[in-house]
Amino acid sequence: MLNAFSDIEAQRIQSVHVQKSKQEIKESLDSVNLGFEKFFNSLFTGVTIDISSEISVLNTMLSNDGLQQNDFDHDE
Predict the structure, then answer these.
(1) What is the pLDDT of residue 30?
(2) Is 30 in contact with 43 (CB distance < 8 Å)?
(3) Cα–Cα distance between 29 and 2 in angstroms, integer?
(4) Residue ranges per domain, the chain?
(5) Cα(39)–Cα(55) distance, rounded to whole angstroms?
(6) CA of residue 3 relative to chain centroid, distance
(7) What is the mean pLDDT of residues 1-9?
(8) Checking CA distances to 46, which of 11, 54, 57, 62 falls within 20 to 30 Å?
(9) Residues 60, 68: contact at Cβ < 8 Å?
(10) Cβ contact 4:25 at 8 Å
């Protein structure tokens, strides 16, 4: 599609048919980009959930041991 777009874009005459073809290619590429973006985000969904869980557990453990920053404020 990109090669076709490049070839069409290089033409000196830009008829209605050529402009329509260029628009269709642009819209198709937008759909492909959106699909890749959703796929990319889905790859990291599990990772981000795991990281958030680990941070939550760490904060709970630190708080239980009195090692959180706000726990130090009470000792002053």
Answers:
(1) 92
(2) no
(3) 9
(4) 2-73
(5) 25
(6) 26
(7) 88
(8) 62
(9) no
(10) yes
Query: What is the C-alpha separation between 25 and 2, in angstroms, rounded?
Result: 8
Q: In this structure, is the dihedral angle defined by the CA atoms of residues 1, 3, 38 and 30, taken in order, positive or negative?
A: negative
- Residue 11, pLDDT > 60, answer yes
- Radius of gyration from C-alpha coordinates of the chain: 27
Q: Distance between CA 54 and CA 42 in Å, rounded?
A: 19
pLDDT tens track for 40-73: 888 888 788 888 889 999 999 998 888 887 655 5
- Amino acid identity, residue 3? N
How high is the mean pLDDT of the chain? 86
